[in-house]
From TrEMBL:
This is Aminotransferase, classes I and II family protein. It comes from Reticulomyxa filosa. One of its GO terms (biological process) is amino acid metabolic process. It comes from the Eukaryota. Belongs to the class-I pyridoxal-phosphate-dependent aminotransferase family. CDD domains: AAT_like. Its cofactor is pyridoxal 5'-phosphate.
Length: 414
Protein backbone atom coordinates (compact mmCIF):
# COMPACT_ATOMS: atom_id res chain seq x y z
CA UNK A 1 0.00 0.00 0.00
CA UNK A 2 1.03 3.58 -0.60
CA UNK A 3 2.46 5.86 2.07
CA UNK A 4 -0.55 8.12 1.39
CA UNK A 5 -3.18 5.42 1.93
CA UNK A 6 -4.17 6.72 5.35
CA UNK A 7 -4.65 10.29 4.08
CA UNK A 8 -8.27 11.20 4.54
CA UNK A 9 -10.06 13.08 1.77
CA UNK A 10 -11.71 16.25 3.05
CA UNK A 11 -14.77 18.00 1.64
CA UNK A 12 -14.02 20.94 -0.71
CA UNK A 13 -14.32 24.55 0.52
CA UNK A 14 -17.99 25.51 0.30
CA UNK A 15 -17.50 28.91 -1.33
CA UNK A 16 -14.92 27.85 -3.91
CA UNK A 17 -17.08 24.78 -4.67
CA UNK A 18 -19.91 27.00 -5.95
CA UNK A 19 -17.46 28.42 -8.50
CA UNK A 20 -16.37 24.95 -9.67
CA UNK A 21 -19.97 23.75 -10.02
CA UNK A 22 -20.92 26.96 -11.81
CA UNK A 23 -18.07 26.59 -14.31
CA UNK A 24 -19.13 22.99 -15.05
CA UNK A 25 -22.80 23.88 -15.60
CA UNK A 26 -23.54 24.06 -19.37
CA UNK A 27 -26.88 25.91 -18.92
CA UNK A 28 -26.65 29.37 -20.57
CA UNK A 29 -29.00 30.92 -18.02
CA UNK A 30 -26.68 30.07 -15.11
CA UNK A 31 -25.82 32.77 -12.57
CA UNK A 32 -22.99 32.68 -10.03
CA UNK A 33 -23.94 34.45 -6.79
CA UNK A 34 -21.64 32.35 -4.64
CA UNK A 35 -18.23 33.94 -4.39
CA UNK A 36 -18.03 37.63 -3.47
CA UNK A 37 -16.43 39.22 -6.51
CA UNK A 38 -17.64 42.31 -8.34
CA UNK A 39 -19.14 41.86 -11.79
CA UNK A 40 -19.98 44.40 -14.47
CA UNK A 41 -23.42 44.87 -15.99
CA UNK A 42 -22.29 42.28 -18.57
CA UNK A 43 -21.44 39.81 -15.80
CA UNK A 44 -17.68 40.08 -16.31
CA UNK A 45 -14.86 40.62 -13.80
CA UNK A 46 -13.80 44.27 -13.59
CA UNK A 47 -10.32 45.74 -13.50
CA UNK A 48 -10.42 49.29 -12.18
CA UNK A 49 -9.22 51.89 -14.69
CA UNK A 50 -6.96 53.44 -12.07
CA UNK A 51 -5.37 50.04 -11.49
CA UNK A 52 -4.66 49.66 -15.21
CA UNK A 53 -3.21 53.17 -15.22
CA UNK A 54 -0.71 52.51 -12.43
CA UNK A 55 0.13 49.08 -13.85
CA UNK A 56 1.36 50.80 -17.02
CA UNK A 57 3.45 53.16 -14.89
CA UNK A 58 4.92 50.23 -12.95
CA UNK A 59 5.91 48.44 -16.14
CA UNK A 60 7.71 51.54 -17.41
CA UNK A 61 9.43 52.36 -14.12
CA UNK A 62 13.06 51.44 -14.70
CA UNK A 63 13.87 51.91 -11.01
CA UNK A 64 11.63 49.02 -9.97
CA UNK A 65 13.47 45.74 -9.60
CA UNK A 66 12.51 42.32 -8.24
CA UNK A 67 14.46 42.53 -4.98
CA UNK A 68 12.90 41.16 -1.79
CA UNK A 69 10.55 43.39 0.16
CA UNK A 70 11.23 43.78 3.90
CA UNK A 71 9.59 41.07 6.08
CA UNK A 72 6.66 43.36 6.92
CA UNK A 73 6.53 44.95 3.46
CA UNK A 74 7.53 48.47 2.56
CA UNK A 75 6.82 50.97 5.35
CA UNK A 76 5.38 53.43 2.76
CA UNK A 77 2.88 50.79 1.69
CA UNK A 78 1.86 50.04 5.28
CA UNK A 79 1.47 53.73 5.97
CA UNK A 80 -0.68 54.17 2.85
CA UNK A 81 -2.94 51.30 3.95
CA UNK A 82 -3.30 52.72 7.44
CA UNK A 83 -4.11 56.17 6.05
CA UNK A 84 -7.13 54.63 4.32
CA UNK A 85 -8.35 53.12 7.59
CA UNK A 86 -7.74 56.05 9.94
CA UNK A 87 -7.71 59.02 7.57
CA UNK A 88 -4.64 60.76 6.17
CA UNK A 89 -4.05 63.14 9.07
CA UNK A 90 -5.12 60.82 11.88
CA UNK A 91 -3.25 61.36 15.18
CA UNK A 92 -2.62 57.61 15.49
CA UNK A 93 -0.40 57.85 12.38
CA UNK A 94 1.19 61.21 13.20
CA UNK A 95 2.08 59.97 16.67
CA UNK A 96 3.38 56.67 15.27
CA UNK A 97 1.08 54.56 17.37
CA UNK A 98 0.48 51.79 14.82
CA UNK A 99 2.63 48.78 13.99
CA UNK A 100 1.84 47.14 10.69
CA UNK A 101 2.75 44.57 8.10
CA UNK A 102 1.83 43.98 4.49
CA UNK A 103 -0.23 40.80 4.34
CA UNK A 104 -1.51 38.28 1.81
CA UNK A 105 -4.78 40.16 1.48
CA UNK A 106 -7.36 40.08 4.28
CA UNK A 107 -7.04 36.37 4.98
CA UNK A 108 -3.29 36.69 5.44
CA UNK A 109 -3.76 39.65 7.79
CA UNK A 110 -6.27 37.68 9.86
CA UNK A 111 -3.91 34.71 10.07
CA UNK A 112 -0.83 36.79 10.98
CA UNK A 113 -2.79 38.69 13.63
CA UNK A 114 -4.18 35.46 15.08
CA UNK A 115 -0.64 34.07 15.37
CA UNK A 116 0.42 37.33 17.01
CA UNK A 117 -2.49 37.07 19.45
CA UNK A 118 -1.82 33.40 20.18
CA UNK A 119 1.79 34.20 21.13
CA UNK A 120 0.86 37.15 23.34
CA UNK A 121 -2.62 36.24 24.65
CA UNK A 122 -2.41 32.43 24.69
CA UNK A 123 -5.44 31.93 26.91
CA UNK A 124 -7.76 34.50 25.36
CA UNK A 125 -10.90 33.43 23.54
CA UNK A 126 -11.75 35.10 20.24
CA UNK A 127 -15.46 35.90 19.96
CA UNK A 128 -17.03 35.61 16.50
CA UNK A 129 -20.45 36.85 15.40
CA UNK A 130 -23.13 34.24 14.74
CA UNK A 131 -23.03 33.85 11.78
CA UNK A 132 -19.73 35.03 10.34
CA UNK A 133 -17.53 34.47 7.30
CA UNK A 134 -16.74 30.72 7.33
CA UNK A 135 -12.99 31.21 7.11
CA UNK A 136 -12.86 33.02 10.49
CA UNK A 137 -13.50 29.76 12.35
CA UNK A 138 -10.91 27.89 10.31
CA UNK A 139 -8.26 30.57 10.89
CA UNK A 140 -8.82 30.44 14.67
CA UNK A 141 -8.51 26.65 14.63
CA UNK A 142 -5.22 26.77 12.72
CA UNK A 143 -3.90 29.40 15.09
CA UNK A 144 -4.96 27.28 18.10
CA UNK A 145 -7.09 30.07 19.49
CA UNK A 146 -10.23 29.19 21.36
CA UNK A 147 -13.46 30.34 19.70
CA UNK A 148 -16.35 32.03 21.44
CA UNK A 149 -19.49 33.31 19.72
CA UNK A 150 -21.88 36.18 20.20
CA UNK A 151 -25.43 36.49 18.88
CA UNK A 152 -25.67 38.85 15.92
CA UNK A 153 -28.40 37.98 13.42
CA UNK A 154 -32.00 38.20 14.46
CA UNK A 155 -33.66 35.85 11.95
CA UNK A 156 -37.16 36.91 12.87
CA UNK A 157 -36.72 40.63 12.26
CA UNK A 158 -33.91 40.05 9.74
CA UNK A 159 -31.85 42.63 11.63
CA UNK A 160 -29.18 42.97 14.32
CA UNK A 161 -29.76 41.27 17.66
CA UNK A 162 -28.00 44.05 19.59
CA UNK A 163 -29.33 42.92 22.99
CA UNK A 164 -28.19 39.34 22.40
CA UNK A 165 -24.82 40.60 21.19
CA UNK A 166 -24.24 42.77 24.26
CA UNK A 167 -25.46 40.07 26.62
CA UNK A 168 -23.12 37.44 25.15
CA UNK A 169 -20.14 39.80 25.12
CA UNK A 170 -20.80 40.82 28.71
CA UNK A 171 -19.87 37.23 29.64
CA UNK A 172 -16.41 37.42 28.05
CA UNK A 173 -13.39 37.60 30.38
CA UNK A 174 -10.96 40.54 30.51
CA UNK A 175 -8.33 40.05 27.79
CA UNK A 176 -10.69 38.16 25.48
CA UNK A 177 -10.81 39.30 21.88
CA UNK A 178 -13.88 40.34 19.90
CA UNK A 179 -13.81 40.05 16.14
CA UNK A 180 -15.93 42.77 14.55
CA UNK A 181 -16.74 43.33 10.88
CA UNK A 182 -15.92 47.01 10.36
CA UNK A 183 -18.70 47.42 7.77
CA UNK A 184 -20.83 45.38 5.35
CA UNK A 185 -21.04 42.36 7.66
CA UNK A 186 -20.48 39.09 5.80
CA UNK A 187 -22.83 37.19 5.37
CA UNK A 188 -25.75 39.19 6.78
CA UNK A 189 -25.24 42.66 5.26
CA UNK A 190 -26.39 44.09 8.61
CA UNK A 191 -24.18 46.55 10.52
CA UNK A 192 -24.65 48.21 13.91
CA UNK A 193 -25.74 51.85 13.77
CA UNK A 194 -23.29 54.45 15.12
CA UNK A 195 -25.22 54.51 18.39
CA UNK A 196 -25.01 50.73 18.65
CA UNK A 197 -21.27 50.88 17.92
CA UNK A 198 -20.99 53.28 20.88
CA UNK A 199 -22.80 50.78 23.10
CA UNK A 200 -20.49 48.00 21.89
CA UNK A 201 -17.42 50.18 22.51
CA UNK A 202 -18.48 51.06 26.01
CA UNK A 203 -19.11 47.40 26.92
CA UNK A 204 -15.75 46.32 25.49
CA UNK A 205 -14.01 49.06 27.41
CA UNK A 206 -15.78 48.30 30.66
CA UNK A 207 -14.97 44.59 30.40
CA UNK A 208 -11.41 45.12 29.12
CA UNK A 209 -11.97 43.23 25.86
CA UNK A 210 -9.68 43.63 22.85
CA UNK A 211 -11.34 44.69 19.56
CA UNK A 212 -10.22 42.91 16.39
CA UNK A 213 -11.59 44.66 13.29
CA UNK A 214 -11.86 42.86 9.98
CA UNK A 215 -12.24 45.44 7.20
CA UNK A 216 -12.68 43.76 3.83
CA UNK A 217 -15.34 46.02 2.33
CA UNK A 218 -14.34 49.61 3.11
CA UNK A 219 -15.96 51.73 0.39
CA UNK A 220 -18.30 48.94 -0.65
CA UNK A 221 -20.93 49.54 2.01
CA UNK A 222 -21.79 53.15 1.24
CA UNK A 223 -19.36 54.02 -1.54
CA UNK A 224 -17.57 56.31 0.92
CA UNK A 225 -14.24 55.23 2.46
CA UNK A 226 -14.60 57.55 5.45
CA UNK A 227 -18.15 56.59 6.32
CA UNK A 228 -17.30 52.89 6.10
CA UNK A 229 -14.41 53.41 8.53
CA UNK A 230 -16.58 55.19 11.12
CA UNK A 231 -16.65 52.25 13.57
CA UNK A 232 -12.87 51.74 13.56
CA UNK A 233 -12.25 55.48 13.91
CA UNK A 234 -14.70 55.62 16.82
CA UNK A 235 -12.79 52.86 18.63
CA UNK A 236 -9.51 54.63 17.92
CA UNK A 237 -10.86 57.87 19.40
CA UNK A 238 -12.13 55.96 22.42
CA UNK A 239 -8.55 55.03 23.22
CA UNK A 240 -8.56 51.27 22.60
CA UNK A 241 -5.53 49.12 21.92
CA UNK A 242 -6.70 46.93 19.04
CA UNK A 243 -5.86 45.14 15.80
CA UNK A 244 -7.15 45.52 12.23
CA UNK A 245 -7.03 43.17 9.26
CA UNK A 246 -7.51 44.93 5.92
CA UNK A 247 -8.10 43.75 2.37
CA UNK A 248 -7.96 45.51 -1.01
CA UNK A 249 -9.50 42.52 -2.82
CA UNK A 250 -12.94 44.06 -3.19
CA UNK A 251 -12.55 47.82 -3.01
CA UNK A 252 -9.64 47.91 -5.48
CA UNK A 253 -10.64 44.75 -7.36
CA UNK A 254 -7.26 43.14 -6.59
CA UNK A 255 -8.59 39.70 -5.58
CA UNK A 256 -5.72 37.62 -6.92
CA UNK A 257 -2.95 40.12 -6.14
CA UNK A 258 -3.37 39.42 -2.42
CA UNK A 259 -2.71 42.94 -1.12
CA UNK A 260 -3.68 43.62 2.47
CA UNK A 261 -2.37 44.89 5.77
CA UNK A 262 -2.24 43.79 9.41
CA UNK A 263 -2.25 46.68 11.90
CA UNK A 264 -1.69 46.78 15.65
CA UNK A 265 -2.80 50.03 17.29
CA UNK A 266 -1.18 50.97 20.59
CA UNK A 267 -2.17 53.97 22.65
CA UNK A 268 1.37 53.98 24.02
CA UNK A 269 3.87 54.74 21.21
CA UNK A 270 6.67 53.09 23.21
CA UNK A 271 5.12 49.65 22.67
CA UNK A 272 4.87 49.89 18.88
CA UNK A 273 8.33 48.56 18.11
CA UNK A 274 7.78 45.52 20.32
CA UNK A 275 4.54 44.76 18.47
CA UNK A 276 6.29 45.34 15.14
CA UNK A 277 9.03 42.86 16.09
CA UNK A 278 6.38 40.26 16.97
CA UNK A 279 4.70 40.66 13.58
CA UNK A 280 8.09 40.11 11.96
CA UNK A 281 8.64 37.01 14.07
CA UNK A 282 5.31 35.57 12.88
CA UNK A 283 5.90 36.31 9.20
CA UNK A 284 9.55 35.32 8.71
CA UNK A 285 9.04 31.55 9.24
CA UNK A 286 5.60 31.59 7.58
CA UNK A 287 6.35 33.04 4.13
CA UNK A 288 9.44 35.18 4.76
CA UNK A 289 8.29 38.34 2.99
CA UNK A 290 5.34 39.54 0.91
CA UNK A 291 4.94 39.89 -2.89
CA UNK A 292 5.61 43.41 -4.11
CA UNK A 293 3.45 43.78 -7.21
CA UNK A 294 -0.02 44.15 -5.69
CA UNK A 295 1.37 46.35 -2.95
CA UNK A 296 3.01 48.61 -5.54
CA UNK A 297 -0.38 49.07 -7.23
CA UNK A 298 -2.11 49.91 -3.94
CA UNK A 299 0.65 52.31 -2.87
CA UNK A 300 0.51 54.22 -6.16
CA UNK A 301 -3.28 54.48 -6.08
CA UNK A 302 -3.42 55.74 -2.51
CA UNK A 303 -0.43 58.06 -2.43
CA UNK A 304 -1.23 60.09 -5.56
CA UNK A 305 -4.12 62.53 -4.96
CA UNK A 306 -5.17 62.20 -8.61
CA UNK A 307 -5.25 58.40 -8.51
CA UNK A 308 -6.94 58.40 -5.11
CA UNK A 309 -9.74 60.52 -6.56
CA UNK A 310 -10.14 58.17 -9.55
CA UNK A 311 -10.26 55.21 -7.17
CA UNK A 312 -12.99 56.77 -5.06
CA UNK A 313 -15.05 57.52 -8.19
CA UNK A 314 -14.86 53.90 -9.30
CA UNK A 315 -15.73 52.67 -5.82
CA UNK A 316 -18.81 54.89 -5.81
CA UNK A 317 -19.71 53.46 -9.20
CA UNK A 318 -19.30 49.83 -8.07
CA UNK A 319 -21.21 50.23 -4.81
CA UNK A 320 -23.87 52.28 -6.64
CA UNK A 321 -24.45 49.44 -9.09
CA UNK A 322 -24.88 47.02 -6.20
CA UNK A 323 -27.37 49.31 -4.44
CA UNK A 324 -29.31 49.62 -7.72
CA UNK A 325 -29.50 45.84 -8.03
CA UNK A 326 -30.87 45.57 -4.50
CA UNK A 327 -33.66 47.97 -5.44
CA UNK A 328 -34.44 46.08 -8.66
CA UNK A 329 -34.47 42.68 -6.96
CA UNK A 330 -36.82 43.92 -4.26
CA UNK A 331 -39.10 45.56 -6.85
CA UNK A 332 -39.36 42.35 -8.84
CA UNK A 333 -40.07 40.21 -5.76
CA UNK A 334 -42.75 42.61 -4.59
CA UNK A 335 -44.29 42.78 -8.08
CA UNK A 336 -44.42 38.98 -8.16
CA UNK A 337 -46.09 39.03 -4.72
CA UNK A 338 -43.50 36.56 -3.47
CA UNK A 339 -44.60 35.51 0.04
CA UNK A 340 -42.76 37.33 2.84
CA UNK A 341 -41.28 40.79 3.21
CA UNK A 342 -38.36 41.90 1.07
CA UNK A 343 -37.32 45.22 2.57
CA UNK A 344 -34.24 43.47 4.04
CA UNK A 345 -32.82 43.21 0.50
CA UNK A 346 -32.51 47.01 0.34
CA UNK A 347 -31.86 47.52 4.07
CA UNK A 348 -28.77 45.30 3.98
CA UNK A 349 -25.54 46.84 2.75
CA UNK A 350 -22.31 45.75 1.12
CA UNK A 351 -21.67 42.93 -1.26
CA UNK A 352 -23.99 40.31 0.17
CA UNK A 353 -27.62 39.74 0.86
CA UNK A 354 -28.82 37.25 3.41
CA UNK A 355 -31.97 36.36 1.50
CA UNK A 356 -33.70 34.25 4.12
CA UNK A 357 -33.80 31.32 1.66
CA UNK A 358 -32.90 28.19 3.55
CA UNK A 359 -30.45 25.40 2.87
CA UNK A 360 -32.21 23.18 5.36
CA UNK A 361 -34.10 20.31 3.80
CA UNK A 362 -37.81 20.49 4.51
CA UNK A 363 -40.41 17.78 4.15
CA UNK A 364 -43.00 19.81 2.27
CA UNK A 365 -45.52 17.08 1.66
CA UNK A 366 -47.22 14.52 3.85
CA UNK A 367 -47.60 12.14 0.89
CA UNK A 368 -44.17 12.02 -0.63
CA UNK A 369 -40.82 12.98 0.67
CA UNK A 370 -39.44 16.22 -0.78
CA UNK A 371 -35.96 16.51 0.61
CA UNK A 372 -34.67 19.39 -1.49
CA UNK A 373 -34.03 22.68 0.30
CA UNK A 374 -34.84 26.06 -1.25
CA UNK A 375 -31.15 26.60 -1.95
CA UNK A 376 -30.86 23.12 -3.55
CA UNK A 377 -33.69 24.02 -5.93
CA UNK A 378 -32.13 27.41 -6.73
CA UNK A 379 -29.04 25.52 -7.87
CA UNK A 380 -30.42 22.34 -9.46
CA UNK A 381 -33.53 23.71 -11.15
CA UNK A 382 -32.64 27.36 -11.77
CA UNK A 383 -28.84 27.13 -12.11
CA UNK A 384 -28.38 29.99 -9.65
CA UNK A 385 -25.36 29.27 -7.46
CA UNK A 386 -25.44 30.57 -3.90
CA UNK A 387 -24.41 29.55 -0.39
CA UNK A 388 -26.30 27.04 1.77
CA UNK A 389 -26.94 29.71 4.39
CA UNK A 390 -29.00 31.75 1.92
CA UNK A 391 -26.28 34.29 1.14
CA UNK A 392 -26.13 35.71 -2.37
CA UNK A 393 -23.47 38.03 -3.74
CA UNK A 394 -25.34 41.11 -4.98
CA UNK A 395 -22.31 41.91 -7.13
CA UNK A 396 -23.24 39.04 -9.46
CA UNK A 397 -26.73 40.46 -10.09
CA UNK A 398 -27.23 42.51 -13.28
CA UNK A 399 -30.18 44.17 -15.05
CA UNK A 400 -30.10 41.15 -17.40
CA UNK A 401 -30.43 38.43 -14.74
CA UNK A 402 -32.30 40.18 -11.91
CA UNK A 403 -35.78 39.25 -13.13
CA UNK A 404 -34.70 35.63 -13.67
CA UNK A 405 -33.32 35.61 -10.13
CA UNK A 406 -36.52 37.06 -8.67
CA UNK A 407 -38.67 34.49 -10.50
CA UNK A 408 -36.45 31.68 -9.23
CA UNK A 409 -36.69 32.99 -5.65
CA UNK A 410 -40.44 33.31 -6.09
CA UNK A 411 -40.62 29.72 -7.31
CA UNK A 412 -38.71 28.23 -4.35
CA UNK A 413 -40.54 30.32 -1.75
CA UNK A 414 -44.06 29.63 -3.07
N1 LIG B 1 -12.96 39.04 5.86
C1 LIG B 1 -14.19 38.93 5.35
C2 LIG B 1 -15.36 39.15 6.23
C3 LIG B 1 -14.35 38.61 4.00
O1 LIG B 1 -15.58 38.50 3.51
C4 LIG B 1 -13.21 38.42 3.19
C5 LIG B 1 -13.36 38.10 1.75
N2 LIG B 1 -14.29 37.16 1.39
C6 LIG B 1 -11.95 38.56 3.78
C7 LIG B 1 -11.87 38.87 5.11
C8 LIG B 1 -10.65 38.41 3.09
O2 LIG B 1 -10.58 38.17 1.76
P1 LIG B 1 -9.18 38.26 1.02
O3 LIG B 1 -8.25 37.32 1.71
O4 LIG B 1 -9.50 37.83 -0.36
O5 LIG B 1 -8.73 39.66 1.12
Amino acid sequence: SSVWSHVEELPPDAIFLTKTLFNKDPNPAKVNLGIGAYRTEEGNPYILKVVRKVEREILDDVKLDKEYAPICGEPQYVHACQSVIFGKDAPVLKEKRAAGAQSLSGTGALRVLCEFLKVNFANSKVYLSKPTWGNHTKILLKSHLEEGTYRYWNAKGRNLDIDGMLEDLSKARPGDIVLLHACAHNPTGVDPTLDQWKQIASLLKKNKLIPFFDTAYQGFATGDLDRDAAAIRLFEKEGFDFVVSQSFAKNMGLYSERAGCATVVSQDPKLVSACQSQLEAVIRPMYSNPPRYGAEIVKRVISSPENFKLWKEEMTYMSGRIIKMRQLLRQHLEALKTPGTWNHITDQIGMFSFTGLTGIKINTSSFFFNTASQVDVMISKHHIYMLKNGRISMAGVTTKNVEYLARAMDDVVK
